[in-house]
């Protein structure tokens, strides 16, 4: 499977497991799971054919481990805009986490902090390198440091997804470092 096909299948699956399952007739369970055979059939019925082997490759090759497979089911690891409860337990974060963004967003972030926007949570990275890659998707990256230890001590809840992405409901501006 070449890289372009891998990306195409990954984006298609991500779109339908995170944002628009109903667009192809999928019904996610409350935790975001769907039967793999149902995903393959729904995609084919809507003109996008891919095989179980291609899906397995996408799941295994994805550097961000965007998808989780449990037996005959698959779900997105995080980033949903549709209502799901991933059942992620609360976790104590490291002292600092990071968020990649672009300069155009900084004024709003300084005023309001980090908000989930259309997603259920703010996504935070465990290291600057990952946050830099995330920010670079939208242009020249700016990496913010989140004082996660202080946030946690102040009562903010953190969760961690299966692929190592830290999740918070919001990050108030007083816990951000813009240097």
Automatic annotation (TrEMBL):
Keywords: NAD, Transferase. It comes from the Bacteria. It is an enzyme of class 2 (transferase). Pfam families: PTS_2-RNA. Gene3D superfamilies: 3.20.170.30, RNA 2'-phosphotransferase, Tpt1/KptA family, N-terminal domain. One of its GO terms (molecular function) is tRNA 2'-phosphotransferase activity. GO terms for biological process: tRNA splicing, via endonucleolytic cleavage and ligation. InterPro entries: Ptrans_KptA/Tpt1, RNA_2'-PTrans_C, RNA_2'-PTrans_KptA, RNA_2'-PTrans_N. Its EC number is 2.7.1.-. HAMAP family: KptA. Belongs to the KptA/TPT1 family. Removes the 2'-phosphate from RNA via an intermediate in which the phosphate is ADP-ribosylated by NAD followed by a presumed transesterification to release the RNA and generate ADP-ribose 1''-2''-cyclic phosphate (APPR>P). May function as an ADP-ribosylase. This is Probable RNA 2'-phosphotransferase. The gene is kptA.
